[in-house]
Amino acid sequence: MRRHSIAVxxxxxxxxxxxxxxxxxxxxxxxxxxxxxxxxxNDCNITANPLNFGTxxxxxxxxxxxxxxxxxCSNGAAYNVGLDAGSVAGSTIPAxxxxxxxxxxxxxxxxxxxxxxxxxxxxxxVATDTVAGTGNGAAQTLxxxxxxxxxxxxxxxxxxxxxxATITF
Length: 169
Description:
Distance between the termini: 97 Å
Helix content: under 10%
Shape: elongated
Structural class: mainly beta
Largest sheet: 5 strands, antiparallel
CATH class: Mainly Beta
Number of domains: 1
């Protein structure tokens, strides 16, 4: 009798919990795919650092300094970087001027070049006096070579100009 009672208890337990445990049940799955995309177009960014000729007295010898531009363009994007004449009235690319304070505004002549020998003036006419390059997707450094040549020294003061660098791509 005892055996019968234990067997009945197990059967009762199995029947009571059976619906809670799915025997032979399988989960069904289906799949699909989707496209992930990104369209990149040619693009460039440019940043500039200041060019400071320092402090001088009489301008009796060349004062040479450099600065850098940072160009970041899409890989394979051709670009040209030009520099304008600056913000001082009367300044031109062949004859750039730094302006002081006063009336009339005193000026100091200076120039920006594309080469270390300071023979190639850096202007803004694409394919003529600009610096050309091809982007590689990372920052590229371009050096700007500046020179204040000997000249009649104007009154003491701070002389400045704001030059705009433009990248064409």
